[in-house]
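Researcher: I need the complex structure. Ligand is tetrahydrodeoxyuridine. Inputs:
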Amino acid sequence: MKELLELAYKARANAYCPYSKFAVGAALLAKSGRVYTGCNVENASFGAGCCAERAALYQAVSCGEREFEKLAIVADIVGGPTPCGICRQALAEFGSLEIITGDLAGNTNKYTLDELLPNAFLKFAPGED
Ligand code: THU
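Model: Output:
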């Protein structure tokens, strides 16, 4: 668990965030045992930016993953950042998972996606399609 936070911390170093100056790193552990990392990538056209969590998720899905165990997220905010609403919805497509957040001072928090996004809108049960 600490290891996943460390990978998220390292991924944060690649954040491209010249507009917000708020760097975020994420590390997503798939059931395969592989870890996929992501950072936020902003854009002059603000809506084209992507959060670290979705960058990691889309990287994982692009590599054939569909099932996930844990997500670690690191940013310079007390206790670490919880994922935004869009990221919660994007993650819920693939089922619930554990979410660990961390700040730069080592404070952490633990959640489940189910608790952060109860009664998520889904067209299929995860894994059903
Ligand atoms: N951001 C993330 O990458 N993840 C979060 O959990 C919260 C917000 C990004 C989006 C934007 O690039 C910057 O942080 C400021 O909101």
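Model: Summary of the prediction. Strands lie at 24-30, 35-39, 68-75, 98-102, 108-112.
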